Amino acid sequence: MDMDDSKNRRNQALLVAAISTLLRRPRPKLSANFFFHVIPYSLLGVVINQASFLEGLRYTTPTNSSILNTLIPVLTLAFVTIAGKEKASLKRMVGFLLALAGVLVLRNVEDFSLSNQTLLGDSLTLLNCVSYAIFLTVSKKFISSHDTLWVTTWMFTFGSIGLTLMSIPAWSDFQMPELTIGMIACMIYSILGATLLAYLLNNWALVRVHSSLVALFIYVQPVVTSIITWTWFNEAPTPRSVVASVLIFAGMILSLRRNEIPTSNGSQNLK
To answer: What's this model's pTM, rounded to 2 decimal places?
Structure first.
């Protein structure tokens, strides 16, 4: 576990706390009940999720990691159905499977391989998927009852503590890399865009739609990546990417339900 990740979460917690204060967002009541919920959610959504993903990536292939991570929406749908929080209709299940098939096509599922060399990494990656799916399943009610910015602040605060403790063994081997302009720009984007904004939007969405739908939008990521590489790096779409995109969006359309679309005033109907 790299100490850089724990520093990132600490900096993100400080940044969100500053934004929340400046915007005068309603502070949550710091009661025993609040910490009883936010600490386990920080463990599931930040510590276990991030640590197992990063460590898993060290011991498996990028292809295995990307394919295994597509299980998050499917696991979330399974968990919320088992918990009785949502109903999994046939139409919705077909939509999830179509979207999953599209992502697997795009990520070269034929290159996936299980071996003794990748067993540890694959297991850690699967733990990352299970942890985040459970977080999406159980945290919705808590996040809905508190200000999103402050919940994210406290999650990153406890997440940074947990990740710091886990990174202690790596401190003796840590070497500060050369900070080029490109690396600094990547660090800023990693902190503000890829992580902080992603968590804020995730928590914001959890207040407004079902947990499984929030997870389902993970399948849009590879499509967005393909569009960016096409636009910025002139990598033309391939027949594989076109077929995959059609499957993903077909699955999204089947899975979306009218009663999960936020109204104009930001409220939602989750009946």
So the answer is: 0.75
